Amino acid sequence: MAEHALMLVLSLLRVVPQRVRATSWATEQQGRSLYGRHVVIVGAGGIAIELMRLLAPFDVSVTIVRRSSEPVPGADRTLPVERLDEVLPGADVLVLAAAATPGTSGLLDARRLALLPETAVLVNVARGSLVDTDALVDAVRAERLWGAGVDVTTPEPLPDGHPLFGEPRVIVTPHQADTPEMTAPLLAERIRHNVRAFLGDGEFVGVVDPHDGY
Known about the structure:
Helix content is 33%, strand content 14%. It contains eight helices and seven strands, in the order ααβαββαβαβαβαβα. Strands 3-2-1-4-5-6-7 form a seven-stranded parallel beta sheet. β4, α5 (110-115) and β5 (121-124) form a beta-alpha-beta unit. α1 crosses α3 (46-55). It is globular.
């Protein structure tokens, strides 16, 4: 998931969606570097932790936005979701990697999309319910975003002919950031770890809180 998110970020910054659609040699120079940018990640789970590790060579500054302000190791700062509006105007990259809960439904609506700079890229590898799809279409059509990469959408599957498919600033991947081929070895190792924990010290991984829903 984190690898896929990084791929989408780099592709958008380097205007790959426009390049792969091109049928003639472009003379206008376009593209932005990830190096030294400000990356805002919504969510503080395994995807966010791994993405920060992958981003480290680019010398970015990372702000984690989560339910609490408890610091996340590796992040430059951690803020509660109530302060999301404060960081959006300064975000070069916004990655959504939070769980789908009643509290995150519609988190990125038209108002919050308008807070992002026109040079920002948005990547959603969480769940489609976090983003107002119609508002996202409006934002990219009006060129109020540099680009958007979505592995998840609302509705899902995204219907044939949906406007997002035709937008040159958008990459849509069909909820395949983690295919069975990719996840099976990792899941097998997690099962082995948790069987050992069950038989031994009880230090389980991937623990779910029924109250929070994830």
